[in-house]
Amino acid sequence: MAGPAHVNGIKISTNAAQYFVESYYAALNVQRNTISSFYMASAEMPGGKPLPSISFNGNQIPNAEAMQTMFEQQMPQSHYEVQCYDCHVINLNYVAEGTQGWPARTGKNMTILVAVSGYVKYGNTKEVKPRGFSESFVLVPNPAVAASKQRLKNVKEWLIQTQNFRIVV
To answer: What pLDDT does 103 receive?
Structure first.
């Protein structure tokens, strides 16, 4: 039987995934100037690997700003239609700046895997056919929210640490 922290983690991760999927794909469709706000601040893992780690159809994107620039300046208008998503708690004891000392039941110190699939159309003509896509994310708590004792308006609670997008053939 799952303990209270695990059950609470499932509830928190499910709510976080739903909000994330709804808001992230809306941004890709019509609010591209907000894309970088979905990512954690640039950092480096102990081995030197940069974070966030972003892979778009096999191409490594160096940072959140480059991802936003790619969508704003290089990509045609898009329409993402999510068909399904799933989420799983990866780590109930994630320790990052601003999350130390929080009990697991708060949900402010866990990581979440979100897997998404659906269809995307790049372009605005009827001739453009939708293509399948698959995308996975690792979400981490936003340190600004984790450190706050109160709910912050217009601040994302979960940020992208790792992202892998693929067009399905």
So the answer is: 60
Cα–Cα distance, 101 to 167 (Å, whole number)? 40
Q: What distance lies between CA 56 and its chain's CA centroid?
A: 13
pLDDT band at residue 92, thresholds of 50, 70 and 90?
confident
C-alpha triplet 41, 16, 96: angle, nearest 5°: 40
Report pTM: 0.89
Token pair in block for residue 61: 């994107």
Which of 40-44, 50-54, 101-105, 151-155 is least confident?
101-105
Question: Phi and psi dihedrals of 6, rounded to 5?
Answer: -65, -45
DSSP structure string for the chain: ---HHHHHHHHHHHHHHHHHHHHHHHHHHH-GGGGGGGBPPPEE-TTS-EESEEEETTEEE-SHHHHHHIIIIISPPEEEEEEEEEEEEEETT---TTTTT--GGGSTT-EEEEEEEEEEEESSSTTPPPEEEEEEEEEEE-HHHHH-SSPPTT--SEEEEEEEEEEE-
